[in-house]
Design a protein that fits this description.
Elements lengths: L3 E9 L5 E9 L16 E6 L2 E6 L1 E5 L5 E4 L5 E4 L5 E4 L12 E5 L5 E5 L2 E5 L5 E4 L6 E7 L5 E6 L8 E6 L1
Antiparallel strand pairs: 1-2, 3-4, 5-6, 6-7, 7-8, 9-10, 10-11, 11-12, 13-14, 14-15
Length: 171
């Protein structure tokens, strides 16, 4: 085991609040293991605003089987299978270059969540998309999903003209 040391400072500000700043220095048992980075560039050949473009999928999440979720520069979402083949995810109303379907997360069942023009969404393994709109909200985004299929996200607005953000869990 490597030596671990802790350096800290305590300061008292005028209101009597204690602030503690700590820095952990040293190495743990696993620190001798080198991290391995794998370059995963999946080239895309797409049309955007009538022009051909070259791009790659920008990855946002990975499950325990190695399947990934990600997006391209235009905000189009992708499900990336084990063999690194990208499949575009598109919500029903997102059919033009000005629309975007973004993928935020994937769980170990292969369900992907994200956002599109219609609101938040969950895409199942069979590629079926269910739109998630918080009742009465001006907008909804899905940001994460666990292995039980529970989705977390945000919604905003309540019809009162206030653009307040709130969190939700969808089960």
């Amino acid at each position: 085991m490597k030596k671990v040391s802790l350096i800290s400072q305590v300061a008292v500000v005028s209101s009597g609040i204690f602030l503690c700043l700590a820095i952990l220095q040293g190495l743990s048992h696993a620190a001798d293991i080198a991290y391995k980075f794998e370059i995963v560039d999946m080239p895309l050949h797409i049309m955007f605003l009538g022009e051909p473009r070259e791009d790659i999928v920008r990855l946002t999440d990975i499950d325990n089987k190695g399947r990934m979720a990600g997006n391209d520069f235009a905000g189009d979402g992708f499900f990336v299978g084990i063999r690194h083949k990208a499949h575009e995810i598109r919500c029903p109303s997102d059919q033009t270059d000005n629309d975007s379907t973004t993928a935020s997360a994937i769980n170990n069942a292969g369900q992907v969540v994200g956002s599109c023009t219609d609101g938040g969404f969950i895409r199942d393994r069979d590629r079926k998309i269910t739109i998630l709109n918080f009742p009465g909200a001006d907008g909804t985004v899905a940001l994460g999903i666990n292995d039980l299929g529970h989705v977390v996200g945000q919604y905003w607005g309540t019809g009162q003209g206030l653009q307040r953000f709130h969190g939700f869990v969808w089960k």
